[in-house]
Amino acid sequence: MTMQPQLVPEAGGSPNPGTPDSPLSEAGVAAAPQEVVGRSPGQLAWRRFRKDRSGVISASIVIFFFLIAFAAPLIEKLYGKDPYTRYGQIHPGLLNEVGAPIAPNGGISGEHWFGIEPAVGRDVLMQLVYGIRTSLLLAVVVVIIVTVVGTILGITAGYLGGKVDYVISRVIDTLLAMPSQLFFIAFTPIVLALFVSERETTPTMLRATALIIVLSLFGWTRIARILRGQVLSMREREYIEAAKVSGAGSGRIIFKELLPNLWTPILIVATLDLPTYVTTEAALSFLGVGMTEPTPDWGRMINKGFEGMQSDVTYLAFPAIAMVIFVLAFNLLGDSVRDALDPKSNR
Questions:
Q1: Which contacts qualify for 105-114: CB closer than 8 Å, 24 or more apart?
Q2: What is the DSSP string of 269-281?
Q3: Rounded distance, CA 304 to CA 266, Å?
Q4: Which UniProt key words apply to this protein (predicted)?
Q5: What φ, ψ does residue 294 adopt, rounded to 5°?
């Protein structure tokens, strides 16, 4: 039987260029292998978020409000008005004898685009601009404080367990059982009285500090409870046990193993908390225990708008509508962020 010689392919070559398995195309040109590009969790979340139309629109509205608050001094310079000057008492013809704006719709004119405040004649537009600046500044500071404190205590309770977990959990349960709104109303004046007597005028910075302290005292419990539950379920998993066996300390396990897996709930809770504190601060100002005259604040504006709403509803409408739009947009943004960060989302 005659043996047929076998052709040995060169190194790296194809055994049969004519077969379909050959990397050579019909034109004899080698086809480049397609590289599979993976996406990080952040890229996948951003991709899901961009497909959420309500999330994109809400984010645009929220960014607009933040830009307005940040650029308030520039807007004041370009507009030529400030939120403190009583234009109705300086310039005749803006207010009538009972303090109501003479011009229709709350005194809207080319000089005052959103009208003027009844009785004193301050510009409404600049009060709105600086009002969101006040509310956002307080809310952002409170969110940062409660997020840091709640994260530390929640992870500590969940990871250490035992007596530490028992004490922190009981403190959380006690604070959550107390009516926070009534506590804010009752204890804000007490905190202020610790630093300023009743005969003295409370500085604006001190009043803002008291609000931050009171709001932060209760605010950290929510995120602490969520993270405690997360850590309790994570500390028994294999990769945590492997890190302990390898000799990793508690600090390394917390910062390298636990914390990277907790950023999603932390971000979601912080996003949902910020509009809550904006409305809480406005409610306290509306009730007279928050920011007071002459500090621009949406809650104070709504309070004064209720006093004259029977004669002119314009002064009440602007801060109320602005707050509804901001809070609704931020809540929708928080829902969209939660859906985008959820790996089970089908968006």
A1: 105/312, 105/314, 106/312, 106/314, 106/315, 108/314, 112/81, 112/87, 114/318
A2: HHHHHHHHHHHHH
A3: 37
A4: Cell membrane, Membrane, Transmembrane, Transmembrane helix, Transport
A5: -100, 20
End-to-end CA distance of the chain: 67
Q: Which residues contact 112 (CB under 8 A, 6 or more apart)?
A: 81, 87, 123, 124, 125
Query: Which residues have a Cβ under 8 Å from the Cβ of 208 and sit 6 or more positions away?
Result: 137, 138, 291
* Rounded-to-integer distance, Cα 243 and Cα 260, Å: 15
Calpha distance 288→300 (Å, rounded): 8
Question: Structural domain boundaries of the chain?
Answer: 134-306
Q: Which residues make Cβ contacts (< 8 Å) with residue 159, sequence separation at least 6?
A: 231, 235, 250, 253, 254, 258
> Mapping DSSP to helix (H, G, I), strand (E, B) and coil, where does residue 30 land?
strand
The amino acid present at 287, given as its one-letter code, is L
Nearest to residue 311, comparing CAs of 109, 127, 105, 114?
Answer: 105
Q: What tokens appear for 171 in the block?
A: 């403190």
Beta bridge partners of 24: 30
CATH dotted code for 134-306 = 1.10.3720.10
